[in-house]
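Researcher: I'd like a candidate sequence for this fold, 1349 residues long. If you have to choose between options at a position, lean toward the conservative one.
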């Protein structure tokens, strides 16, 4: 067979070489229909994918080839033997990497391998198997392999990869006809980066006094750079570790939040950290510290005593005791002295002497090995023995002894019992608190004397302090030594002025007011170093002269000379050494002589030879002894000064007139302006007295404004002429208003002004003329105004009111305005006409038409007064909103303007009518469907319907093509629109308008899109309780009012709430119920609190319906107390039994509360002794014993409870049978014998237990497997508090309490349950020790626990 086949192949090869080139194109064309699918996978290859040239082939070298023709129809069926290109094809198509679309993505959390076997499945391969694996690059062993079971899957994933490690993910495809052309392992590499994907799943913490040890399970995968970091209270501790445990030492006592996280070179994991709380307890210092003091043999002795605050295990050999620290001040961080005391030494004493400071303080510490407790608060050692208060009743008396002032100081000691080191310290101070010197006086001296010397200032102060050793009490209030002696100012001062020989002499007299023991004011007596000081001052309070006068003299004389000014003042003071007493008020020395201003002034104006002359006359008013106002008398250096001032109060001229003269004359010249004023003053030397009021010198002649002003308007040759006439109003002697009389330098000035009060022209007219003429020209605007004034030289008098020159001719607005509409060439045109309202028309009068776009003029047309109509077409720049106004103008001045008129506003665009809104709810969205009918019958180009979406009456416009727009332009043919609530606010309203371009007609009434939908909550809400499988279940039902015409509607949302302690409602969960359901069941076993409430509301998606009120889920059910209560009791033991009889029956979570009460005999009030919670419904009995501490008169009440909800209490019932009031002697004897036997039995059992404990070295505990397990005990139970577990207690209002212990707790202050059955009755025993337990363990010296848990 093979030789024949090879021969055929050779012949075919020769024929192909000969005819291949010529027939290639023909073959391609003839086989064009065949070569539509050549890969066998329904994928048409591109032209470049095929090469039809015959490959070089040798069966001895290569029997297989990878030619795309192999997978085409050319190499299938009977044609295969005739085609030389198919000779090397394998029997099945090989699988390549490009056939499976292999991709890989990875990070530290894992890798995802994606692939697609669709193409391979089209190859028709038998026994196809696909295995996917991954391994580290560079290693051969796979980390994991997975066989693809479902070949239609497209991805597979592996969790947990190491950061920075390169992995290869390979796909291995095998089948029954494998060839060397198949790519068996098709791989892609991926290197993840990032922190670890997870943290340890849990954390276990143990420890001792100063350390804790944490351990945790390893994180997967365990990479080379994986480490763990332990955190305390969120802060890293030590360096990261690659182990799964870590110990942290040298920790202070306190509560620690311990957590651990995984880290690598890229950072730490961001996943939640495992954490737990751990408490390191502390050693406490001694307590009941007592300090007592006593004075023994004249010395102060302090006795200290204290008690231990903790009980340490006696068997431990660790060194223990107390440290007493002595501090000399609170600022010291380290004690000055520390004394050690053994564990049993708890007292010591100290004697106050020079070796210890009075303010010494002490603290105590407990030490155990190298551990120390905190120090007690610093306590005074000596200083609280007495109150170190200053001396009392301190007095200072001033006396004069031998002309020397002395201070006698007396006091009373404030300490009753004196002792060695007690005294008084006296300190002298300056007024600025500088210490002069200090002297100490020993107890019991209580007086001393200090004399005034040169080294002691007058204002020396003294303070006294009680001294004890180096300590001083607070000082007394500073007391004046000498300055308490008042230095009053002299009194009864008199000042006498006399003029002698033209010289003013002043004599000042006074009387001393000093009052001191040993001194009187007689002239023959004096005090050394004391007297009266006379000080002279100028008006700026500068000292001019100071003279001291001894106490024996009481007067001083001064004369007016060049050294003392007129306004000199003097003061008097009593002085003592360097100190001066109170000062008298300053009084005038010379100016007691008043320089009164002249009086009876007169001013006379006269006109002589065309010159204005002014004469001023007055009378002097000086009053002084030896002088009168007669002309023949005078005072040297005194007279009257006349001053002339301008209008800005600048001095123009000053003339002094002697007292013998009383007048002055002035003439109006170029040096003095018209508004010159004058004043008169009396002067004495350099000083001037009061000034008279300034009065006018010339302007007493009033420049009155012209009167009787008239304005005349005439039009001549189209020119407006204005004539102004007036009358002069000047009144002055020698002048009249006749035309032939005049005053030089005076006349009338005519001023012309524009509307901004700018002066346009000024013309002066002599008094002989009284008129002026003006014409309207280009130099004077229409609104020119004029004023008239009388002038005199440079000064102008009053101005007349400004009056219009031309504008008295009113430029009133046009009238009779009419607008008519025409349509010309499909364009709307407005024809505007009007009439003139100005009576006399003249050249220069115009009408202006302003076209307005909003507040902007877009066009102005001015027409002469001969035209009265204007045409305007709709089009740029004129729009539908354009308005127009008309106004009259003259000489560029705008006259009256008409109001605004619409050009095209007369055309009415009526809004659509018959508007309706319907609703539908589908796919979680509420849809509003709006329909309407058009109101304008005739349509024209540009006519549209505008739909406005309105929110709270505010309209927002957007462009037409903007999605979510608020203004919609709709073709006038359309009459319907739809809106979704997910795209618009709930309170959206809409209106409709007709519009042409941007002009819109009136809007329709606003209608709601969505808010007409009923948002009320579901109605007929009811809750029905049921007990299903011992679980309390609440069945909630309601009616949904929101069903639309198409039978759609929104779902109902149920919210479950829990009320917090602050009264706020906290949401627990939300539940969505479809619209077609109206019932739900909720069980108490699902973890909801008893007080859970719920509310209902409809859910419209973007808006929620109104929420219903809060409704109780379980709490509305009446919780009744236990019933069928039976108490079997005697004097010492009681058994209580009860049952629950709720109407619904019993259910999980129903428990019983046992309340034990005692009667307070003093107040007759009931006191709750204990409250115990029994959470199991099956717990329906309890046993109590009076022997273990429960009072005989105790009573009991019971309650039912679920969670924090409690029922009412049952009636109070006695626990025990009361003792008989009388007993027989035999009963007493039997009772004593029984108690004695029990006591002996108790002693034997106790001795046996102690021997067993000593032999084993441990305590044995018997534990009852309950939900609450009390803590275990060790020999260190006083160092670390026991782990007593207290049941949660509820007060009557449902709140938790933590101050009471359970009656069944093993560590109660009073064990109410006996340890063994008593009196033959069955008793409950909880958490008692039992020898059968195998517990063994104790605490090491450092506080760490060693043993089995």
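Model: Candidate sequence:
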């Amino acid at each position: 067979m093979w030789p024949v086949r090879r021969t055929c192949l050779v012949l075919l090869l020769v024929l192909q070489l000969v005819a291949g080139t010529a027939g290639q194109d023909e073959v391609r064309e003839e086989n064009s229909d065949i070569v539509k699918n050549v890969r066998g996978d329904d994928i048409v290859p591109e032209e470049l994918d095929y090469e039809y040239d015959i490959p070089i082939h040798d069966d001895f070298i290569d029997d297989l080839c990878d030619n795309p023709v192999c997978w085409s129809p050319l190499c299938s069926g009977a044609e295969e033997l005739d085609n030389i290109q198919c000779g090397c094809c394998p029997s099945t198509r090989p699988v390549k990497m490009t056939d499976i679309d292999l991709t890989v993505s990875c990070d530290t959390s894992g890798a995802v391998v994606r692939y697609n076997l669709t193409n391979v499945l089209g190859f028709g391969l038998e026994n196809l198997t696909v295995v996917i694996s991954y391994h580290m690059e560079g290693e051969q062993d796979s980390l994991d392999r997975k066989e693809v079971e479902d070949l239609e899957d497209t991805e597979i994933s592996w969790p947990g990869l190491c950061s920075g490690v390169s992995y290869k993910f390979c796909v291995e495809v095998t089948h029954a006809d494998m060839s060397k052309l198949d790519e068996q392992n098709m791989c892609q590499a991926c290197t993840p980066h990032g922190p670890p994907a997870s943290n340890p799943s849990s954390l276990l913490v143990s420890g001792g006094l100063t350390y804790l040890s944490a351990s945790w399970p390893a994180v997967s995968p365990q990479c080379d750079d994986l480490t763990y970091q332990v955190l305390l209270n969120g802060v890293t501790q030590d360096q990261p570790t690659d182990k799964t445990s870590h110990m942290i030492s040298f920790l202070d006592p306190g509560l620690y939040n311990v957590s651990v996280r995984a880290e690598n070179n890229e950072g730490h994991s961001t996943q939640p950290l495992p954490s737990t709380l751990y408490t390191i307890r502390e050693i406490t210092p001694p307590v009941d510290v007592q300090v007592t003091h006593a004075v023994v043999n004249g010395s102060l002795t302090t006795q200290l005593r204290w008690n231990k605050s903790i009980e340490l295990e006696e068997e431990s050999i660790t060194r223990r005791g107390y440290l007493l620290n002595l501090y000399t001040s609170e600022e010291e961080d380290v004690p000055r002295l520390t004394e050690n005391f053994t564990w049993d030494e708890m007292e010591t004493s100290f004697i106050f002497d020079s070796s210890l400071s009075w303010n010494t303080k002490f603290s105590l510490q407990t030490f155990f090995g190298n551990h120390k407790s905190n120090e007690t608060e610093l306590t005074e050692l000596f200083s609280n023995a007495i109150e170190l208060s200053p001396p009392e009743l301190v007095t200072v008396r001033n006396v004069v002894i031998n002309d020397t002032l002395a201070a006698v100081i007396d006091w009373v000691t404030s300490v009753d019992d004196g002792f060695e080191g007690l005294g008084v310290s006296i300190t002298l101070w300056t007024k600025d608190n500088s210490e002069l010197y200090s002297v100490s006086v020993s107890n019991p001296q209580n007086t001393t004397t200090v004399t005034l010397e040169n080294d002691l200032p007058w204002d020396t102060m003294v303070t006294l302090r009680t001294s004890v050793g180096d300590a001083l009490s607070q000082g007394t209030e500073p007391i004046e030594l000498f300055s308490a002696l008042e230095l009053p100012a002299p009194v009864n001062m008199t000042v006498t002025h006399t003029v002698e020989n033209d010289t003013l002499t002043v004599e000042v007299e006074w009387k001393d007011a000093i009052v001191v023991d040993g001194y009187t004011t007689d002239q023959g007596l004096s005090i050394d170093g004391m007297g009266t000081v006379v000080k002279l001052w100028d008006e700026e309070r500068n000292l001019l002269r100071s003279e001291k006068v001894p106490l024996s003299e009481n007067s001083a004389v001064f004369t007016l000379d060049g050294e003392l000014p007129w306004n000199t003042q003097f003061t008097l003071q009593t002085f003592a050494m360097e100190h001066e007493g109170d000062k008298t008020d300053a009084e005038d020395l010379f100016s007691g002589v008043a320089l009164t201003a002249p009086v009876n002034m007169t001013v006379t104006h006269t006109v002589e030879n065309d010159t204005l002359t002014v004469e001023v006359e007055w009378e002097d008013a000086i009053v002084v002894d030896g002088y009168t106002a007669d002309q023949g008398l005078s005072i040297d250096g005194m007279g009257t000064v006349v001053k002339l001032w301008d209008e800005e109060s600048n001095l123009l001229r000053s003339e002094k007139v002697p007292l013998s003269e009383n007048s002055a004359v002035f003439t109006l010249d170029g040096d003095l302006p018209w508004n010159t004023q004058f004043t008169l003053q009396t002067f004495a030397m350099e000083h001037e007295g009061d000034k008279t009021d300034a009065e006018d010198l010339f302007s007493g002649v009033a420049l009155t404004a012209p009167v009787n002003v008239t304005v005349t308007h005439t039009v001549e040759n189209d020119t407006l002429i204005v004539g102004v006439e007036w009358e002069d109003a000047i009144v002055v002697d020698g002048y009249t208003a006749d035309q032939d009389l005049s005053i030089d330098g005076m006349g009338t000035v005519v001023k012309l002004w524009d509307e901004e009060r700018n002066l346009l022209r000024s013309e002066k007219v002599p008094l002989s003329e009284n008129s002026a003429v003006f014409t309207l020209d280009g130099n004077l605007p229409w609104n020119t105004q004029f004023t008239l004034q009388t002038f005199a030289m440079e000064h102008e008098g009053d101005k007349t009111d400004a009056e219009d020159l031309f504008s008295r001719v009113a430029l009133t607005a046009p009238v009779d305005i009419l607008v008519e509409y025409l349509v010309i060439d499909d364009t709307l045109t407005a024809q505007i006409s009007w009439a003139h309202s100005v009576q006399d028309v003249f050249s220069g009068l115009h009408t202006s038409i302003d076209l307005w776009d909003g507040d902007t003029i877009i066009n102005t047309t001015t027409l002469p007064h001969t035209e009265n109509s204007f045409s305007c077409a709709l089009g740029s720049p004129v729009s539908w909103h354009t308005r127009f106004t008309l106004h009259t103008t003259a000489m560029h001045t705008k006259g009256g303007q008409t109001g605004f008129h619409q050009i095209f506003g007369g055309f009415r665009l009526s809004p659509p009518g018959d508007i309706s809104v319907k609703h539908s709810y589908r796919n979680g969205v509420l849809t509003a469907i709006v329909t309407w009918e058009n109101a304008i019958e005739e349509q024209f180009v540009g006519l549209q319907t505008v739909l406005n979406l309105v929110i709270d009456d505010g309209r927002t416009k957007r462009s037409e093509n903007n999605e979510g727009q608020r203004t919609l332009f709709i073709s006038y043919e359309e009459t319907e629109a739809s809106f979704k609530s997910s795209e618009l606010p709930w309170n959206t309203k809409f209106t409709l308008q007709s519009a042409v371009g941007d002009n819109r007609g009136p809007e329709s009434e606003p209608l709601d899109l969505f808010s007409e939908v009923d948002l009320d909550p579901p109605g007929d809400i009811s809750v029905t309780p049921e007990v299903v499988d011992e679980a309390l279940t609440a069945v909630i039902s309601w009616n949904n009012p929101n069903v639309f015409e198409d039978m759609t509607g929104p779902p109902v949302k149920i919210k479950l709430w829990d009320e917090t302690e602050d009264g706020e409602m906290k949401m627990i969960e939300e539940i969505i119920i479809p619209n077609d359901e109206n019932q739900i069941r909720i069980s108490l076993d699902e973890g909801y609190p008893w007080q859970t409430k719920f509310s209902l509301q409809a859910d419209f998606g973007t808006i929620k319906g109104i929420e219903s009120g809060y409704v109780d889920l379980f709490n509305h059910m009446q919780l009744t107390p236990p019933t069928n209560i039976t108490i079997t009791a005697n004097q010492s033991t009681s058994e209580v039994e009860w049952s629950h009889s709720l109407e619904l029956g019993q259910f999980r979570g129903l428990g019983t509360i046992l309340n034990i009460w005692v009667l307070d005999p003093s107040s007759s009030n009931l006191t709750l002794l204990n409250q115990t919670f029994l959470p199991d419904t099956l717990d329906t009995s309890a046993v109590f014993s009076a022997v273990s501490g429960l009072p005989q008169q105790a009573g009991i009440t019971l309650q039912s409870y679920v969670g924090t909800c409690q029922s009412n209490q049952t009636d109070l019932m006695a626990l025990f049978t009361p003792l008989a009031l009388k007993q027989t002697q035999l009963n007493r004897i039997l009772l004593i014998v029984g108690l004695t036997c029990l006591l002996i039995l108790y002693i034997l059992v106790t001795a046996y237990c102690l021997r067993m404990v000593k032999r084993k070295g441990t305590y044995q505990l018997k534990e009852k497997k309950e939900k609450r397990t009390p803590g275990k005990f060790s020999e260190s139970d006083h160092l670390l508090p026991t782990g007593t577990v207290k049941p949660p207690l509820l007060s009557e209002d449902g709140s938790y309490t933590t101050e009471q212990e359970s009656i069944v707790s093993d560590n109660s202050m009073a064990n109410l349950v006996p340890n063994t059955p008593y009196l033959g009755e069955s008793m409950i025993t909880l958490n008692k020790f039992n020898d059968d337990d195998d517990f063994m363990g104790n605490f090491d010296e450092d506080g760490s626990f060693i043993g089995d848990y």
